[in-house]
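Reviewers asked in the last cycle whether our approach scales beyond single polypeptides. To address this, we selected a multi-component target totalling 1256 residues and predicted its structure end to end. The input consisted of the following lines:
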Amino acid sequence: METLSDKLKSLGVHLGVPKPRQKPQKAFFPLEGIVSGGYRESVFGRSFVHAEEYSLDYLHGTVQICKLKPISRILAWAGLEALADVPVDSILFLDTETSGLSGGTGTLVFMVGIGFLKEDGFHVEQFFLSNPDQETVFLNSIAESLSPFSVLVTYNGKAFDAPLLNTRFDLNHIPSPIRSFSHIDLLPLARRIWKYRLGSRSLKNIEVEILRTNRTQEEIPGWEIPQIYFDYLRTEDARPLKGVFYHNAMDVLSLAALFQFLAGFTDDPFSIPAPVGIDLVALANLYEDLGDLEAAARYYEIGLKEHLPGELHHKTLERFARMHRKNQNWEKALKLWESGCSEDDLYSLIELAKFYEHHEKSPEKALDFAEIAMRIRTANKSGSNAFAFSKLEIEKRIERLKGKIRSSKAKQV
Amino acid sequence: MVNDSKKSFFQNWFINPENQDNLAALKKYDPRNARWQEFPSSIDSNLVRALHENGILQLYNHQFESWQAIQNGKNIVITTGTASGKTLCYNLPVLDSLLKYPDVSALYIFPTKALTYDQFENLGKVRESLEKLQMVKVNQLRAAVYDGDTPEHLRSPIRKEARILLTNPDMIHLGMLPHHTLWADFFRNLKFIVIDEIHYYRGVFGSHVANVYRRLQRVAHFYNSYPQVIMTSATIANAQEFAEKLIEAPVQMIDQDASPSGEKIFAIYNPPLVNEELGIRKSSLLESVRISRDFLDRDIQLITFVRTRRSTEMILKYLIEQDRSLGKIVRGYRSGYLPAVRREIELGLRNGNIKEVVATNALELGIDIGGMDAVQIVGYPGTIASLTQQSGRAGRRKGNSVSILIASANPIDQYLVNHPEYVFQRSPEKAMINPDNPLILFQHLRCAAFELPFSGNLQYGDLSETDLINFLQILVEAGDLYERTGKYYWANDQYPSGNFSLRAAGGNPVSLQAELDGKLRSIGEVDEPSSYWMVHPGAVYLQEGQSFVVKGLNLVESTATLVSQDVDYYTVAQEITEIELVHQIKKANVVGGSKNLGELLVKQQVTGFKKFLWETRELLSLEPLEMPETQLRTVGYWFSLAEGIVDQLRSEGLWQNDRNAYGPRWSELRKIVRERDHFLCQVCGRPENGVEHHVHHKIPFRQFGNLKQANRLENLITLCPTCHQRAEVSTHIRSGLAGLQYILNQLAPLFIMCDSSDLGSTAEPQSKLGNGAPTVIIYDQVPAGIGLSDSIYDIHDQLMKAAKELIQKCGCKEGCPACVGPSSEKIPSGKRETLVILDHLLQ
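The resulting structure, written as structure tokens, was:
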């Protein structure tokens, strides 16, 4: 008699190679023997936790995690100014390991790593779901441990970790503690600051490029993690999990270090060694959005003096001048446009044409700039912003200006 | 036009000989009065006031009945006619419930997006009235469409606020169920599930939808919800049974239509024969153009339904070529038109500015356009349910209307010409699904496990626990699930519902790209296995009378490139089909043989193709092809002739041919062939013994258009009289079987509600399946089958009877596309031969 699995195969289903089920070996490599730690008791049952402490002077790359920096700028960026007086020990750093990246109810969170500061140093605790049927205990024990904290810091947690954890709590009919946190997700801030400098804004890359730290041989790539967990469930051989614990702990440490780095950098960029012009311009832009125009102007200026890549240079010029124009600071704007003019900056030329036409009521002068703009546009110089305006646009402007000049001459006659 | 003159126009039109002579059937439906009921006092009084505002002062009987059944906790299916107010049957209990308990939620499922938006607007009108009356807060009756087009930023608010959610099965499958915790509040309060137009959910799509429903139930139960189900359906033969199969629960049917209608005529028009012998009729498309002009001249508003998007454009083109002024009042309507254009056309129909719309079935479902004076349906639309829905577009509450089916040359059309009762009285077609098709089930069980672990009471729809555990164990072994103490958890990093679509059985459809008007355009698609024989390189592909030559078939990119080209030849793929029996399911003796049902393995390979001249059917060339072999594991039905019958056919000598005129050179040719064959019978080896042996045409003489081709030496062979008769008989049996295969394949969809392309068929004169007996096999073109063959097995007798009648009544001489099929060279089908076999299969 044909089995169901034979039938499915003959219908074209790829069932793959049957997976090993090596339960008998479990005595040899239990989790406790691989990762230090133990089962934490709660009213709901036992749950595995691995804890580690880092001393006050611990350096993660170039960053001393426990050395506090003012966090007001980060809070302002996150729209959480109200938390200005938040005690540092209510900030929680969190990162999860999951059975997949797709989200949805079928994706398990099997590890939650948290980090927090205490008087004696930085603490990392990792909760591990040793089996899906223990999820309620696992989640309850996490919920219990999260209760002293009020601010949550993650990397991409708004899109990933938080919704997944909420889903897990909901499925287990436990009120999700995540929903009651003030949540700071550092990913969008990192994107803003390093948009022009780093090809990848992944935490891994920032570790290398910014924090200057390296992971050891123990590190395993993230994409391997789901399979390691599934294999562990089937074989109960905990050895490969060691790398997962390491990976997660490093993520939590780097997250905390990145937080401190960004706090310091956004508070005073010269508090870090050798800040880069590109980063300063990005920071100036952030200050501008936060309404601190004075600080913005300061770093735009410094940035422009540095050797920025062509396109970014023009863009910065434009942004900076626009900020002045918006605030009716004509004198400063004019100065920038004129400097742009000497660099064949198309935007500056058009702005000058506008300025003389509307503000100074001098169509002749405006026409001069418009015609220079046309020449540059026609020359198609690359590496500049020579394509920011179409020929037609400039053409129209020139025609209009010529018209104005003619009619004013006619009036004079 | 005032009604009396309209009535007399219709009367005159039908007695005009030009029309009357071609009328195959006509049925007059008397006007019907509405049967009303007062609003039950239990309905929320504000809702009643709001409905009054919208002109609804009373309920039809069937709406009242639906209300009561719902109040009694029943699931229902409503099958009353087009425009009979089915929508109110479900909106009434849902809105009433929402007004009384503001937290209640309802899920509305529609098969198409267009229908979803249309019903959304409908619902909006009642809501507006309620809001105007200030009876409800704006958000209380929050209804929203949630589908693939819903902008990302609206999704989260909709999830939080919507109480009535309008969506489609695909979205539930892909977006809602795998993220059900985001809908927790919605599911906790889910009281009603509305499934509109369930007849749409048949076959593969329906089998998928039934599984989506099973998953939906599991999730609802997780949130302690046990919603009631309200369904609507077009008239089909098994609406209640089908509804019960879809939701796996008892369903009460409400089918007594109490809405009013004016006098209505339904006619079947059969275009006149232009070539009786070949069974060629006048084009139904051109006939419809003529009828359109008759109606438009008299200001009769009408819809013309056609089967394909291209026909829409062709009719429009013909009409406007004949009279430019028609351009303003005649419009097309099909998928591919922008929504704004569609809305404009719908409005034009309602306010009468547009006089004719030439539409595909895009206009068939739901869309509110009011009643038309007339509807023409150009060619049977594939199901009686569609036909009835399209025809239902004609009809005013008061006043006369007509609908006309213009038959095409397809067998079902021609069968209906002689069996109008199937159209006028009762639909013979049954909708079929097989939610337990192992392939479909397998895919959905993965999704279900992703959504919620299987634990405790292992249950999934009506699947037995043993079968379920069997599947779950396989998934455990495949590494998809992790089992612990009888609980099964999803343990895979995939998102399983993203892996397949509900609307395709699998495989990539091959897109047909042709250069038209200077642009490369898609003219259609065929599934990959069919592409091997339909659009192989060099094939002539016909679509709507236009011929294309295939330049290339790219199976990696799933495209075939075609060039529009008028050629004087056609191509026939040479295909080897081999059918193996995997496992016999059923067998029964029937008159003249046996009928069977079993699992089959169908192996097919296209090995080459032949080019034939259109005019003479002369073989121009045979070209080899290398195409991949396809294997289909499915369920099939077959019948084999009893051994006695074959002998009987032989001895009866029914097929002593009329003497053919073999031409002036015949005696000379005979001699040459006999000499070539050394005067020996080429089968038994017997020498001539005083009497000359016969010379036989391997491919029958009448298959050829000219003497020269038929009398080619390689087509001639020397046989003794006994062997000659045998050869003749087996040729005839082959012809008869081929004819039967063709007609059964074409006709079965009338009874089992599918496309003829959903079925595969083959005929084998000496079949392994029939222990060497002549056999005709029909199988589901879907891996593992979806119940079509099972049903054919059940209606074997009915099908044979229908086939015989159709052939007898067909006017052609040697067989035509409308009965036993056109002759092809491989196995020429014969009308007489088919009839003789059928005689033995019927008493």
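The mean pLDDT of chain A is 88. We regard this as preliminary and will revisit it once experimental data from Aim 1 are available.
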